[in-house]
Amino acid sequence: MKLQRRRHPDDKYTDEARIRVVERYKTSDLSGDEWRFSYVVELSRKGVVYAKAVCGNTPEYAAVLLSQGLILGLAELETLDAWETLPFEKIPDEGYCCQPGCPEKSTRKYAMQKEWSDGCWFSKDLDVESSGVLYREFCDKHGQRGDCGLDDTNSNYTCIEGNDWNNAPADPSKISESIGPLVQRKRSHQV
Ligand SMILES: [Zn+2]
Predict the structure, then answer these.
(1) Smallest Cα–Cα separation from 137: which of 173, 177, 92?
(2) How many CB atoms lie within 10 A of CB 179?
(3) SS3 string of 134-182?
């Protein structure tokens, strides 16, 4: 059976984008020793940094490169001198859970019954002869897909490997991630 993986429609490839400070201790017999700092922009997918750009000590430039990294695709970033990228085949995708942002390996595969547009205003029956069976894969935590929606929903899937959603061990209502408020630190000393 020919299989073809389909990413989740909300998988925008980059799960995390950040700017961080990198330190370096410069030593020199002539000019002396000192700490130097630069900014590095990192784009991550499923817990793996797949693109980075080192950009001196100017945060505004780092912000521009961060935006560039989020707007351009991997093929375009590869052509730019500022960026260093992992080879495509080393970036997590096949074999990993299709839930956007999840870094876990998959434990189950679901064949798709129909393919729906992003806006859910059309569907097409799959031409298995030419494209093969389209599928998505999920970890145990994300095996339950719910009964709402059209594309990513239990009724659009048939389990072809591992357990189906009835045997997903985790209860999604208990694991929903909360963004929550910022936690304010208590002042250690009052003036
Ligand atoms: Zn997962």
Answers:
(1) 92
(2) 4
(3) EEEEECCCCCCCCCCCCCCCHHHEEEEECCCHHHCCCCHHHHCCCCCCC
- Contact at 8 Å (CB) between 138 and 164? no
Average pLDDT over residues 57-65: 94
pTM for the model: 0.83
Ligand 1 center to 169 CA (angstroms): 12
Task: State the distance from the centre of ligand 1 to the C-alpha of 10, rounded, in angstroms.
Answer: 14
Q: d(Cα 14, Cα 67) in Å, to the nearest integer? A: 12
Q: What percent of the chain stands above pLDDT 70? A: 90
The residues pairing with 37 across neighbouring beta strands, listed in sequence order, are: 23
Query: What residues are neighbours of ligand 1 (ion), with CB under 5 Å?
Result: 97, 99, 102, 104, 139, 142
**Helices first, then strands: H and E counts in the chain:** 4, 10
Apex 109 CA angle, 104 and 111, nearest 5:
140
Q: Which residues fall within 8 angstroms of residue 98, CB to CB, at 6 or more apart?
A: 5, 6, 7, 8, 11, 106, 136, 137, 138, 142
- Residue 66 alpha carbon to ligand 1 centre in Å: 26
